[in-house]
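Lab manual, section 2.4: Encoding a predicted structure.

Procedure: take the sequence of the chain (283 residues), apply the prediction step described in section 2.3, and record the output as structure tokens. A sample record is shown.
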Amino acid sequence: MDKGINNVLNSIQIAYESLFDAEKKVADYVLQFPEEAINMTITELSEKSDVSDATIVRFCKKLGFNGYQHFKMTLAKKFVNPNNIIPATVDLKDIKSSIKSIMSYKVEELKLTSESLDVNMMTMCIDKIINSNYIYFYAAGNSLPVAMDAAYKFNLIGIRSHVDIISEMQISSAYSLTENDIAFGISNSGTSKSILKIFEIAKERGATTICLTSSKKSPLVNLSDYKLFTVTNEELFFKEFSYTRVPAFSVIDTIFLLVYKSIMGNAYKDMNIREEVLSNNKY
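Recorded output:
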């Protein structure tokens, strides 16, 4: 469905009388606070509207949208200025200053992410990783490179890890999880349907669930035993199309180095063996 940008709010008003009472609560909130709604996860909007996540999905589908994300993206086009996707100080006429601005922007993200990480939560995650049988990393879209990097790094130091890049294979592997394994989900929004399905399976299988996300109020957080959070500065609507995952990569690097430090003796030996084999692929 391709609704006109200016027709979303009108569509809500037209459909209003046909909505159930719970759905009208969602409509009332969106009509009153549309600019706030576009920056909310489905869980945040459900709390503000005092309804369930499922009610919001039904509300969106009644209006002809595929789901909440489709609804939110269409609504957001009315309010978000495309020029704000990147910092205002980025100027192609002054590349030197632009480089400095972009780098400062990323440094600020790292600083905020560092401050947001809970030391006790990190400590527990490290302990779980060290004592796990296997770590399955799960991600979708542009979070996949972060998951691939994580699996590669941990395998280097003898922590058995795996990542699949195809959604169906990810779901299939989730059914192999045991109570000694970890399902580590990486999702910036925390609302990826495939990752949520995987975490539901992981919980059923008794596996430990860890998430890395920038959304503290998201369905993924609710399904996770341990939660790690990043901070991004991009416009909230556009963060799923962000040109970088620097904070997420940095959190993975931090966990990796702390785990490596904890098991350094055996890890150093494993890493040397792997590097020696891999060196044959280099000139």
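Check your result against the sample. The first helix runs from residue 8 to 15.
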